[in-house]
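Lecture notes, unit on protein representations.

Consider one protein chain, 444 amino acids long.
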Amino acid sequence: MKHQPVEGFSKLSKQGKIDWIVNEYLEGNDEYQKILKQYWNENPELQKLHEEFSENTVSNFYMPYGIAPNFLIDGKLLALPMAVEESSVVAAASKSAKFWLDKGGFKTTIINTTKLGHTHFIFEVEPHRLKHFFNFELKKKLLQQTEAITANMRKRGGGILDVELVDKTSELSNYYQLKASFDTVDSMGANFINSCLEQFGKTLKQEIETSAAFTEEEKASLQVVMNILSNFTPDCIVRAEVSCRIEDLKDDSGISPEEFAWKFKQAVTIAEIEPYRATTHNKGIMNGVDAVVIATGNDFRATEACAHAYAAKDGQYRSLTHCTTENGVFRFWIDLPISVGVVGGLTNLHPLVRFSLALLGKPSAQELMSILAVSGLAQNFAALRSLVTTGIQKGHMKMHLFNILNQFGATEEEKQYFVQYFKDKTVSHHEVISELERLRASKI
């Protein structure tokens, strides 16, 4: 069937959009209408609120919202909200939290909170002349002409921290940047930063056009390409760590604390030098980070992009976590670049986001940074603990068991049977199906 393009899709009603989708792509099957509508919220006001978060919405896409308790973070006992669909993420985080609960918990340090943005422009002029103009004329004007934009942020203790001229002409002909650093306090600050940068672009153009320092031909060559924040924030960093005596690393897998510490450190070191391992290693970290980022209404795509760029900052992709075993002490930590907010965006609109932030004690942006780093570190500890002892599949597949059973319409009685059946066995998809068929055949 050849599909036809649609005109004015965004102007159709929600039902009109659904009708078009089902008729054009799904052969008019009413079953697909029911699938979309069963996820509508019964509260019409709440449904309307969700629909206005995005465009062309026809339904809601639900994710499990779980709680990982027993996180002792900087002396505070917290329960972390986690929105995630992957089996074992919440369980793994909870297990790590419990493991470190009687060992002092997690400690965090905010290393910096600086965020960045750039005005990217092309200008056919010698770098030394532009630098002189920037230092003695332009920089002052850039700050003056953004004062109205930054007024409220400055009242809250934030604002523009600095503006630099960056010469990139060795990489692209006539390419320069205005690199600005910001403190956005408790907001993620994307709109604030972009507004400042757009004004920078206007001011740059105005000041060069009216300056006697450049020829008319040079002025005509100026092209402001774009003004945009960077999601790479290598100076917005939080450190989370755990430590204890090696002798206290008792594990129920049967290996000694010394062997556990040695194998664990080797696993981290391998992720520090081997990109194939580092990618999976860091993905596991972000399982923990993203789940809390989503639950608190922040941007997990920005979080992911920043973390992975930071992992490759020295030219090779490496582990975000590190480990030492010195003088009888085990230490495990993460330095995570992360930019999040607790005001603005969905924080006051999405009911579950409000719930999440209330559950966490209404944290500041810096406190939320700490919580996110801890969640990532806990997830990584749990994964490595499994990998160097019992293996990752034993626990993961037990959590995945219900997904397999639900796929084949298992009853509650059958589910309970399989919980007992796999109590001392490793779950496999093939084994589940074979035993389910045998069980059902025996009843017939």
